[in-house]
Amino acid sequence: MSLEILGITVLWFFLYGYLIVASIDFGAGFFAYYSRRTKTDHLVNNIIQRYLSPVWEVTNVFLVFFLVGLIGFFPSSAYYYGTALLVPGSIALVLLSLRGAFYAFAHYGARDSISYYGIYGITGLLLPATLSLVLVVSEGGFIVEEGNKVILLMGKLLSTPYTYAVIFLALVSVLFISATFLTFYANKANDKGATTLLHSYAMIWALPTILASLLVFWTIRGHNPDHFAKMVDNSWFFIASFLFFAVAAFLLYKRKGYGWAFVCVMLQFFFAFFGYGKAHLPFILYPYITVTEGINSPQMMKALLIGFIAGLCLLIPSLILLMRLFLFDAKYVQGKK
Amino acid sequence: MELDSTMLARILTGITLGFHIIFAALGVGIPLVISIAEFIGIRKKDKQYTLMARRWTRGYVVTVAVGVVTGTCIGLQLNLLWPSFMQLAGEVIALPLFLETFAFFFEAIFLGIYIYTWDRFKNPYIHWLISIPVVVGSTASAFFIMTVNAFMNTPQGFTMVDGVLRDIQPLGAMFNPATHSKVGHMVFSTYSTAAFTLAAIAAMSLIKGKKHSYHKKALHFTLTLAFIFSMGTALYGDIAGKFLAKYQPAKLAAAEWHFDTKGEAELILGGVLNKETQEVKYAIEIPYALSILATNKPSGEVIGLNDIPKSEWPPLFIHYLFDSMVAIGSYMILVPVLYFAIVKIRKRKPKKWILWATVAGSPLAFLAIELGWVFAEIGRQPWILVGYMKTSHAATTADNVGQMLILFLLLYAFLGIFCSGVLLKMFRDKPVEIELEKYGKEE
Known about the structure:
The structure holds 2 protein chains of 2 kinds.
Chain A: H1 3-37, H2 41-73, H3 75-84, H4 86-107, H5 114-137, E1 143-146, E2 149-152, H6 154-157, H7 161-188, H8 192-223, H9 225-233, H10 235-254, H11 258-280, E3 283-285, E4 289-290, H12 298-326, H13 330-333
Helix pairs in contact in A: 1-2, 1-5, 1-7, 2-3, 2-12, 4-5, 5-7, 7-8, 7-11, 8-9, 8-10, 9-11, 10-11
Chain B: H1 5-43, H2 47-81, H3 83-115, H4 124-153, E1 159-161, E2 164-166, H5 170-174, H6 179-207, H7 213-247, H8 249-256, E3 267-269, E4 272-274, E5 279-281, E6 284-286, H9 289-295, H10 318-345, H11 352-378, E7 383-385, E8 389-390, H12 401-428, H13 432-442
Antiparallel strand pairs in B: 1-2, 3-6, 4-5, 7-8
Helix pairs in contact in B: 1-2, 1-4, 1-6, 1-11, 1-12, 2-3, 2-12, 3-4, 4-6, 6-7, 6-11, 7-8, 7-10, 10-11
């Protein structure tokens, strides 16, 4: 494996990590707000807060990490994406800032206000929609280069069916991943009321998730036929993804093995995400940037990879410690600590 | 001043950094103070110190949240507003940016653990140990990000071939001549700002007539730390002065209105400059002081602005920024000294005026950090990468920078107001006395 492919693979792992933890986080924020509106918050909010409070900051870092890594390994992506995405990027930043800050205000500041929850919950749904635009742009066709100017064709972006398919997929996946995880968490806490409610959310969002995936396939075929053809070449990724979805849906339907159901959902997205990513190669931004136009200096590449590995040696044990204390510690989950 | 996209990008970056740095300074400094307080609490078996650590942690988390989100903003704005700079230099600064994120990650994980495990371990030292990675992580991220800024001031560790940076030596770029003084000065000033801010809270409680020994103890403790850290800041300020004289003489000469290269140079405080004749009026002059600051010798030669091409002169108003920063720095050493002179030597109760002086120390400390930053950043104009890239060639070519500026201004105003409101409410609702009583019962 060449260093470039290794680099993008590691980065893709981080983006996948962000996809899972952020989905749980975004979805949980929305469910917390929704349950307050529908006066069912006494059922679920304890569970949600118990999980979110120690980890919300960690979620944010995953995203920063991916971005810094992308620029580090592929500096020209900073030039194209940076120039083209000024407006959507800034909007995403504002949403992210409001969300993060209001989480802390509502939870640590002990100000139990429904409008705080509202800002937190609604920005949580707008964010995946905004962030997924970057993936749409990476398909090509929305950025033109004129002289020394890089321009994003906003009008075209907002009139292409593929854009809406991706946004739709992002939204429903967030709710599905989150509800599956929270069902598992609530069940672990022996909280019957929360489990039932969250289980119903998971069931509601299962079917739209798979429909949205099909819609993305269908629309990408029209927008970027090359990429679609490569996805067909790698179709076993997507078949595996669907199989794991089927197992997850079956377990949820039978109301057993919630932990395994969540693992299957993770695998479902793992295969879909890596299949999509593999077919996207060698392009980072079609057709301007490929992975081989990455970093110029082999010393820096090595230093970055060493930095990465050293960092992971520090991070993985810490993350395991975090999970053992707050995720797999039965007493904490049940609220006895 | 023309409001083209370069100027707008500069203003937006400046505002984001200026807002972020308030929370970043607290984010780096407060964990250290909390950790020391918790340690003393365990050592002396004194519940009051433990309560200080707990209360400060509660407020700290709210400021961390704002620090995290504004930090994410500046991290991304670097790419959104300065894409050409990132394309050129991104490869060289990738490693420190990367390591900074790691340090931040590390801090985030252990901060989560620290906050939610106060009563979880039988041995209190285990909980205290968790504060160490938080302190290490926050200070390490300050270190790494400062190496990036240092690199922009004294770039090295590469060769430029046809407009592209090649032959990159990652460590050479990180440990450039500016790194030592910049990191030291910044880290110590965040520590002393944090200590002063916590001291100001304690002093304010005493002014309001609260009698509990907790407040006196907190004031004593934080002012001790404030003194140590302010001395450290001053020491590194001196090192930074010598660095400037050697590597960025234009910045030092502009800060000191020093026009003709000469030895036995005097330091100028305040004053009014006549730009045509290069004469300074109404200033306090300290003979030899600039030579001593720059070279450690009263006779040392200091390069003047007239030996530097006029196109590379920084704006001359940075003199006032520099002077104000130094004045506040001296104030931050003087206040703790006076306080301890009253309390320890003369064995008196702290007087109202010294309490008010302590309260004023906190906003002044933040002001000094802002002034120091603006001085350091504007002082290297017109360069973004000194000697290699001018700021005007680095900014985005996109339109809409103006609208984004307004958008972020609104965001920061909103966050600033809400954050202050939440912090005030948080502590008004829970006075110390009630919390101490609660702990007493738990025993």
